[in-house]
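We were asked to recover a plausible sequence for a given structure. The inputs and outputs are reproduced exactly as logged, with field labels preserved.

PROBLEM: sequence recovery
POSITIONS: 421
GIVEN STRUCTURE:
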């Protein structure tokens, strides 16, 4: 009897080992190429990827790369036949007619997703960025992280000056003039050549309801009357002394510090800076900081501006497509988008997160962010987007240095941009 019992125990142990081996063989695996900041916004190694392995048995190999290298690594993999990375994170402009041929179309996966994934809860403007061509093309990406433009301002200085919140750019200029006093500039913006001045100008430009080129990618829009006018607005602060005289040397840190140190009354900022600027240990004006939506020329559709988003795409040559889709859902589902926003400094892509009471308590500006993201657009989704950005920077600087009028700078910009289109 003892021998039989022992034999049974051995058989049971062997069966258990076989079962575990079978589970290990069946366990999925997936490789993710991601920017390191985005990885931390998913909780790093103890966050979403750890949960996915524990809950679904899917092991995630994470490869991180800086902004300047992530596209190169992805393109090299695609060009070599693909399959090295199952899921890749890319910014909106990199999702275009030239690249989507390497991506797995996602509409079929979206239709079969569990009801609680709630694809429609992803902000509409971001869902449209993921569709090529627009509008109504196939979905090739899922939005994962987003920031937008919003005006952060000194409530105490507005109250002292008796100012109401500007809804038009003309009202914004009038406020900038009135707020400028010894030691305090009415407006602070970035003017440093390159992405700094280019991105800050575009937060003004996109308030017109359009960006640098038409949706079909065939026509430059920088020479339109409204584009020229917002460039004039962008320069008016600087020319009249309502912005720092060394604005052309201002990058991210300089313009953020000017606001936090009390040397500026307002500026159009990248929305995620709220947390830093409200940090009382870093900011002298944290208790006075408020926000309002980016103005427009006519006071309508206030809040329209430039969105800056990251999206997850699936390699068309992936050998682990179901696991890849599970990872994409895990990164972007309701639970992890809320957790990311509250705990990991992610910029959420879901309407429900911005409407969540806990998120609103931590970020009183949440409704403003949602409005701005919903009305905003991504930058040009074109294979030559980098060259287009270089042209915008160069011609805006030409205007700020008074080498050209706003009209001439934008006309010359379109001449160059149209050669790319």
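RECOVERED SEQUENCE:
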């Amino acid at each position: 009897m003892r021998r039989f019992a022992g034999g049974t125990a051995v058989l049971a142990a062997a069966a258990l080992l076989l079962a575990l081996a079978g589970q290990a063989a069946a366990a999925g695996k997936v490789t993710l190429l991601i920017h390191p900041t985005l990885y931390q916004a998913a909780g790093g190694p103890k966050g979403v990827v750890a949960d996915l392995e524990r809950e679904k048995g899917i092991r995630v190999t994470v490869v991180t790369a800086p902004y300047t290298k992530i596209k190169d690594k992805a393109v090299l993999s695609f060009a070599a036949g693909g399959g090295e990375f199952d899921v890749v994170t890319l910014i909106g402009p990199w999702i275009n007619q030239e690249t989507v041929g390497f991506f797995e179309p996602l509409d079929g996966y979206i239709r079969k997703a569990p009801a609680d994934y709630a694809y429609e809860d992803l902000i509409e403007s971001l869902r449209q960025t993921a569709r090529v061509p627009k509008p109504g093309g196939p979905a090739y990406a899922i939005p994962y992280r987003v920031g937008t433009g919003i005006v952060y301002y000194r409530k105490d200085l507005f109250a002292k000056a008796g100012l109401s919140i500007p809804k038009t750019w003309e009202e914004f200029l009038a406020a900038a003039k009135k707020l400028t006093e010894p030691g305090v500039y009415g407006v602070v913006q970035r003017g440093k050549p390159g992405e700094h001045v280019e991105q800050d100008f575009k937060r003004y430009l996109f308030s017109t309801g359009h960006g640098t080129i038409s949706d079909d990618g065939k026509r430059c829009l920088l020479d339109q009357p409204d584009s020229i006018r917002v460039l004039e607005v962008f320069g008016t602060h600087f020319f009249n002394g309502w912005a720092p005289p060394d604005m052309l040397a201002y990058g991210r840190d300089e313009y953020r510090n000017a606001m936090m140190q009390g040397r500026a009354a307002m500026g159009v900022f990248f929305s995620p800076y709220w947390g830093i600027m409200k940090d009382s240990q870093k900011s002298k004006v944290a208790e006075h900081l408020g926000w309002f939506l980016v103005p427009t020329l006519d006071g309508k559709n206030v809040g329209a501006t430039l969105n800056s988003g990251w999206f997850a795409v699936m390699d068309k040559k992936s050998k682990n497509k179901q696991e890849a889709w599970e990872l994409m859902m895990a990164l972007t589902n309701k639970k992890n988008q809320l957790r990311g926003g509250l705990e990991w400094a992610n910029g959420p892509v879901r309407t429900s997160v911005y409407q969540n009471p806990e998120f609103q308590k931590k970020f009183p500006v949440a409704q403003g962010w949602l409005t701005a993201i919903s009305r905003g657009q991504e930058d040009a989704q074109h294979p030559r987007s980098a060259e287009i950005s270089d042209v915008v920077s160069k011609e805006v600087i030409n205007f700020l240095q008074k080498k050209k009028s706003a009209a001439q700078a934008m006309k010359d910009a379109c001449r160059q941009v149209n050669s790319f289109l």
